[in-house]
Design a protein that fits this description.
- It is a single chain.
- By secondary structure, the chain is of the alpha+beta class.
- It folds into 2 domains: 140 residues, Rossmann fold (3-Layer(aba) Sandwich), CATH 3.40.50; 135 residues, Sandwich (Tumour Suppressor Smad4).
- Helices cover 20% and strands 37% of the residues.
- The protein contains 7 helices and 19 strands.
- It has a 7-stranded mixed sheet with strand order 3-2-1-4-5-19-6, sandwiched between helices. A 6-stranded antiparallel sheet has the order 8-7-18-15-10-11.
- Strand 10 and strand 11 form a beta hairpin.
- Helix 1 packs parallel to helix 5.
- The termini are far apart.
- 40% of the residues are buried.
Protein backbone atom coordinates (compact mmCIF):
# COMPACT_ATOMS: atom_id res chain seq x y z
CA UNK A 1 0.00 0.00 0.00
CA UNK A 2 1.38 3.40 -0.98
CA UNK A 3 2.13 5.84 1.80
CA UNK A 4 0.61 8.67 -0.22
CA UNK A 5 -2.87 8.06 -1.63
CA UNK A 6 -4.14 11.45 -2.79
CA UNK A 7 -1.63 13.19 -5.04
CA UNK A 8 -2.06 16.82 -5.99
CA UNK A 9 -0.44 17.85 -9.27
CA UNK A 10 0.55 21.45 -10.08
CA UNK A 11 1.80 22.19 -13.59
CA UNK A 12 3.85 25.02 -15.03
CA UNK A 13 1.65 26.73 -17.66
CA UNK A 14 1.00 26.06 -20.44
CA UNK A 15 0.15 22.50 -19.41
CA UNK A 16 0.04 21.36 -23.05
CA UNK A 17 3.83 21.58 -23.19
CA UNK A 18 4.09 18.95 -20.46
CA UNK A 19 1.48 16.49 -21.78
CA UNK A 20 3.96 13.61 -22.17
CA UNK A 21 5.28 13.81 -18.61
CA UNK A 22 1.74 14.25 -17.24
CA UNK A 23 0.62 11.14 -19.12
CA UNK A 24 3.50 9.23 -17.56
CA UNK A 25 2.78 10.62 -14.12
CA UNK A 26 -0.90 9.65 -14.33
CA UNK A 27 0.09 6.12 -15.36
CA UNK A 28 2.47 5.72 -12.39
CA UNK A 29 -0.21 6.97 -9.98
CA UNK A 30 -2.72 4.53 -11.41
CA UNK A 31 -0.28 1.63 -11.08
CA UNK A 32 0.14 2.45 -7.39
CA UNK A 33 -3.57 2.92 -6.72
CA UNK A 34 -3.18 6.63 -5.98
CA UNK A 35 -5.75 9.30 -6.83
CA UNK A 36 -4.69 12.22 -9.03
CA UNK A 37 -5.96 15.62 -7.88
CA UNK A 38 -5.33 18.20 -10.59
CA UNK A 39 -4.65 21.84 -9.85
CA UNK A 40 -6.33 24.38 -12.15
CA UNK A 41 -2.94 25.03 -13.76
CA UNK A 42 -3.41 21.67 -15.52
CA UNK A 43 -6.89 22.40 -16.86
CA UNK A 44 -6.13 21.98 -20.61
CA UNK A 45 -4.53 18.56 -20.07
CA UNK A 46 -7.23 17.51 -17.62
CA UNK A 47 -10.02 18.43 -20.04
CA UNK A 48 -8.62 16.02 -22.65
CA UNK A 49 -8.53 13.19 -20.12
CA UNK A 50 -11.84 13.83 -18.39
CA UNK A 51 -10.13 14.94 -15.16
CA UNK A 52 -11.75 17.85 -13.35
CA UNK A 53 -9.58 20.53 -11.75
CA UNK A 54 -9.72 22.25 -8.39
CA UNK A 55 -8.37 25.46 -6.97
CA UNK A 56 -5.30 25.54 -4.75
CA UNK A 57 -7.26 25.61 -1.48
CA UNK A 58 -9.29 22.53 -2.44
CA UNK A 59 -6.11 20.77 -3.47
CA UNK A 60 -4.49 21.57 -0.13
CA UNK A 61 -7.44 20.14 1.79
CA UNK A 62 -7.61 16.86 -0.12
CA UNK A 63 -4.01 15.98 -1.04
CA UNK A 64 -1.43 14.25 1.15
CA UNK A 65 1.40 14.86 -1.34
CA UNK A 66 1.77 17.55 -4.01
CA UNK A 67 3.90 17.05 -7.12
CA UNK A 68 5.06 20.17 -8.95
CA UNK A 69 5.79 19.66 -12.64
CA UNK A 70 7.89 22.60 -13.81
CA UNK A 71 10.97 24.53 -12.77
CA UNK A 72 12.12 26.16 -9.56
CA UNK A 73 9.81 29.13 -10.21
CA UNK A 74 6.75 26.89 -10.25
CA UNK A 75 7.99 25.19 -7.10
CA UNK A 76 8.48 28.51 -5.33
CA UNK A 77 4.93 29.55 -6.19
CA UNK A 78 3.54 26.26 -4.87
CA UNK A 79 5.61 26.54 -1.69
CA UNK A 80 4.25 29.97 -0.82
CA UNK A 81 0.64 28.91 -1.33
CA UNK A 82 0.89 25.54 0.45
CA UNK A 83 3.36 26.00 3.33
CA UNK A 84 0.66 26.70 5.90
CA UNK A 85 -1.13 23.44 5.01
CA UNK A 86 1.83 21.28 6.12
CA UNK A 87 1.84 19.35 2.83
CA UNK A 88 4.97 17.62 1.49
CA UNK A 89 6.09 18.75 -1.97
CA UNK A 90 8.00 16.84 -4.64
CA UNK A 91 9.34 18.48 -7.81
CA UNK A 92 9.64 17.05 -11.33
CA UNK A 93 12.06 19.17 -13.35
CA UNK A 94 10.65 20.67 -16.54
CA UNK A 95 12.64 23.87 -16.23
CA UNK A 96 16.32 24.71 -16.49
CA UNK A 97 18.53 24.68 -13.39
CA UNK A 98 16.24 22.84 -10.99
CA UNK A 99 17.74 23.07 -7.50
CA UNK A 100 14.34 22.33 -5.93
CA UNK A 101 12.74 20.09 -8.54
CA UNK A 102 15.17 17.20 -8.29
CA UNK A 103 13.28 14.42 -10.11
CA UNK A 104 14.33 14.28 -13.78
CA UNK A 105 11.66 13.36 -16.39
CA UNK A 106 13.59 10.28 -17.56
CA UNK A 107 13.86 8.94 -13.99
CA UNK A 108 10.38 9.99 -12.92
CA UNK A 109 8.58 6.60 -13.26
CA UNK A 110 11.12 4.79 -11.09
CA UNK A 111 11.71 7.57 -8.57
CA UNK A 112 8.04 8.46 -8.16
CA UNK A 113 7.21 4.77 -7.82
CA UNK A 114 9.72 4.51 -4.98
CA UNK A 115 8.25 7.56 -3.24
CA UNK A 116 4.71 6.20 -3.53
CA UNK A 117 5.94 2.91 -2.06
CA UNK A 118 7.23 4.77 0.99
CA UNK A 119 10.90 4.98 0.04
CA UNK A 120 11.93 8.62 0.30
CA UNK A 121 13.60 11.18 2.51
CA UNK A 122 11.89 14.26 3.86
CA UNK A 123 13.45 17.48 5.06
CA UNK A 124 12.09 20.76 6.32
CA UNK A 125 13.15 24.03 4.73
CA UNK A 126 12.73 27.35 6.51
CA UNK A 127 10.76 30.13 4.85
CA UNK A 128 10.53 33.87 5.33
CA UNK A 129 7.55 36.01 6.23
CA UNK A 130 7.64 39.65 5.24
CA UNK A 131 5.57 42.74 5.94
CA UNK A 132 5.78 46.20 4.38
CA UNK A 133 5.12 49.01 6.84
CA UNK A 134 4.05 52.47 5.71
CA UNK A 135 3.39 55.17 8.31
CA UNK A 136 3.40 52.45 10.97
CA UNK A 137 0.77 50.24 9.32
CA UNK A 138 1.32 46.95 7.51
CA UNK A 139 0.14 47.41 3.91
CA UNK A 140 1.36 44.14 2.34
CA UNK A 141 2.49 40.71 3.49
CA UNK A 142 3.94 37.74 1.67
CA UNK A 143 6.12 34.64 2.09
CA UNK A 144 9.33 33.49 0.46
CA UNK A 145 11.18 30.19 0.26
CA UNK A 146 14.27 31.66 -1.42
CA UNK A 147 14.57 35.34 -0.63
CA UNK A 148 13.10 38.75 0.07
CA UNK A 149 14.84 41.30 -2.14
CA UNK A 150 14.89 45.08 -2.02
CA UNK A 151 15.88 46.40 -5.44
CA UNK A 152 15.86 49.52 -7.56
CA UNK A 153 13.05 49.72 -10.13
CA UNK A 154 13.20 50.89 -13.76
CA UNK A 155 16.40 52.93 -13.61
CA UNK A 156 20.09 52.12 -13.27
CA UNK A 157 20.59 54.09 -10.06
CA UNK A 158 21.31 53.22 -6.47
CA UNK A 159 18.91 53.40 -3.54
CA UNK A 160 19.78 54.37 0.01
CA UNK A 161 18.55 52.29 2.93
CA UNK A 162 19.39 51.29 6.48
CA UNK A 163 19.36 47.83 7.99
CA UNK A 164 18.61 46.71 11.55
CA UNK A 165 18.89 43.22 13.03
CA UNK A 166 16.97 42.55 16.23
CA UNK A 167 16.68 46.27 16.77
CA UNK A 168 20.44 46.82 16.44
CA UNK A 169 21.55 49.26 13.76
CA UNK A 170 23.80 47.57 11.18
CA UNK A 171 24.51 50.26 8.60
CA UNK A 172 23.26 52.72 6.02
CA UNK A 173 24.29 51.86 2.51
CA UNK A 174 23.86 52.94 -1.07
CA UNK A 175 23.46 49.99 -3.40
CA UNK A 176 21.24 48.48 -6.07
CA UNK A 177 19.49 46.63 -3.27
CA UNK A 178 19.71 43.88 -0.66
CA UNK A 179 18.91 40.15 -0.77
CA UNK A 180 17.73 38.48 2.45
CA UNK A 181 18.02 34.76 1.74
CA UNK A 182 17.28 31.47 3.45
CA UNK A 183 19.71 28.54 3.10
CA UNK A 184 17.50 27.35 0.23
CA UNK A 185 17.80 30.76 -1.42
CA UNK A 186 21.55 30.98 -0.87
CA UNK A 187 22.07 29.19 -4.22
CA UNK A 188 19.77 31.63 -6.05
CA UNK A 189 20.01 35.44 -6.44
CA UNK A 190 22.15 35.74 -3.30
CA UNK A 191 24.80 33.49 -4.84
CA UNK A 192 25.12 35.71 -7.92
CA UNK A 193 25.66 38.64 -5.55
CA UNK A 194 28.67 36.96 -3.96
CA UNK A 195 26.85 35.46 -0.98
CA UNK A 196 27.85 32.20 0.73
CA UNK A 197 26.19 28.84 0.14
CA UNK A 198 24.37 27.86 3.33
CA UNK A 199 23.61 24.18 3.92
CA UNK A 200 19.83 23.66 4.26
CA UNK A 201 20.32 22.25 7.74
CA UNK A 202 21.66 25.55 9.06
CA UNK A 203 19.34 27.80 11.04
CA UNK A 204 20.67 30.93 9.41
CA UNK A 205 19.93 33.76 6.99
CA UNK A 206 22.28 35.71 4.78
CA UNK A 207 22.06 39.41 3.91
CA UNK A 208 23.73 40.11 0.58
CA UNK A 209 24.08 43.67 -0.77
CA UNK A 210 23.56 44.08 -4.51
CA UNK A 211 26.39 46.10 -6.10
CA UNK A 212 27.12 48.25 -3.01
CA UNK A 213 28.82 51.61 -3.56
CA UNK A 214 31.12 50.96 -0.60
CA UNK A 215 33.11 47.84 -1.44
CA UNK A 216 33.58 46.96 2.25
CA UNK A 217 29.83 46.24 2.50
CA UNK A 218 29.98 42.45 2.39
CA UNK A 219 27.41 39.67 2.91
CA UNK A 220 26.73 38.76 6.51
CA UNK A 221 25.14 35.67 8.07
CA UNK A 222 22.76 35.89 11.04
CA UNK A 223 20.66 33.45 13.02
CA UNK A 224 17.29 32.69 11.43
CA UNK A 225 15.48 33.74 14.59
CA UNK A 226 16.62 37.30 13.84
CA UNK A 227 14.12 40.02 13.03
CA UNK A 228 15.38 42.12 10.17
CA UNK A 229 14.18 45.62 9.27
CA UNK A 230 15.21 47.40 6.08
CA UNK A 231 14.13 51.05 5.90
CA UNK A 232 14.30 53.24 2.81
CA UNK A 233 15.94 56.54 3.69
CA UNK A 234 13.87 59.71 3.53
CA UNK A 235 16.25 61.27 1.02
CA UNK A 236 15.86 58.37 -1.40
CA UNK A 237 14.50 59.63 -4.71
CA UNK A 238 14.78 56.51 -6.86
CA UNK A 239 11.93 54.07 -7.29
CA UNK A 240 12.33 50.86 -5.31
CA UNK A 241 10.48 47.56 -5.01
CA UNK A 242 10.51 44.56 -2.75
CA UNK A 243 10.21 41.11 -4.31
CA UNK A 244 9.28 37.85 -2.58
CA UNK A 245 10.95 34.97 -4.46
CA UNK A 246 11.05 37.30 -7.46
CA UNK A 247 7.31 36.76 -7.96
CA UNK A 248 5.33 38.93 -5.53
CA UNK A 249 6.47 42.52 -6.19
CA UNK A 250 5.44 45.65 -4.31
CA UNK A 251 6.39 49.29 -4.91
CA UNK A 252 7.97 51.21 -2.06
CA UNK A 253 8.10 54.85 -0.98
CA UNK A 254 10.78 56.70 1.04
CA UNK A 255 10.65 55.71 4.73
CA UNK A 256 8.78 52.47 4.00
CA UNK A 257 10.03 49.56 6.09
CA UNK A 258 10.43 45.89 5.15
CA UNK A 259 10.13 43.60 8.19
CA UNK A 260 11.42 40.07 7.62
CA UNK A 261 11.49 37.08 9.96
CA UNK A 262 11.41 33.31 9.74
CA UNK A 263 7.93 32.08 8.90
CA UNK A 264 6.20 30.13 11.64
CA UNK A 265 5.83 27.05 9.40
CA UNK A 266 8.55 25.21 7.50
CA UNK A 267 8.13 23.68 4.05
CA UNK A 268 8.13 19.89 3.86
CA UNK A 269 10.30 18.77 0.95
CA UNK A 270 10.29 15.16 -0.29
CA UNK A 271 13.27 13.62 -2.13
CA UNK A 272 13.52 10.25 -3.88
CA UNK A 273 15.97 7.64 -2.53
CA UNK A 274 19.63 8.51 -2.92
CA UNK A 275 19.21 12.29 -2.73
CA UNK A 276 22.52 13.98 -1.90
CA UNK A 277 22.69 17.76 -1.44
CA UNK A 278 26.36 17.94 -2.39
CA UNK A 279 25.72 15.93 -5.54
CA UNK A 280 23.06 18.50 -6.44
CA UNK A 281 25.59 21.31 -5.95
CA UNK A 282 28.17 19.54 -8.10
CA UNK A 283 25.67 18.87 -10.87
CA UNK A 284 23.90 22.24 -10.92
CA UNK A 285 26.99 24.42 -10.41
CA UNK A 286 29.17 22.20 -12.59
CA UNK A 287 31.88 21.82 -10.02
CA UNK A 288 34.83 19.75 -11.20
CA UNK A 289 34.23 20.21 -14.92
CA UNK A 290 37.33 20.75 -17.01
CA UNK A 291 37.53 24.24 -18.57
Amino acid sequence: MARFQHIGVIVKPPAEQHAAILDQLASVLEQHGATLLLDETGAPWGARHGISCMDREQLARQADLVIVVGGDGSFLNAARTLVDHDLPLLGVNQGRLGFLVDVSPEDMPVQLGAVLSGHFTEERRSMLSGCILRDGSCIQTSYALNDVTLHVRDVVRMIEFETLVNGHFVNIQRADGLVIATPTGSTAYALSGGGPILHPGLEALTLVPICPHTLSNRPIVVSDDSRIVVRLCRENRNHAQVAFDGQDNFDLLPEDEIHVARHEHDLRLVHPPGHDYFHVLRAKLRWGEQP
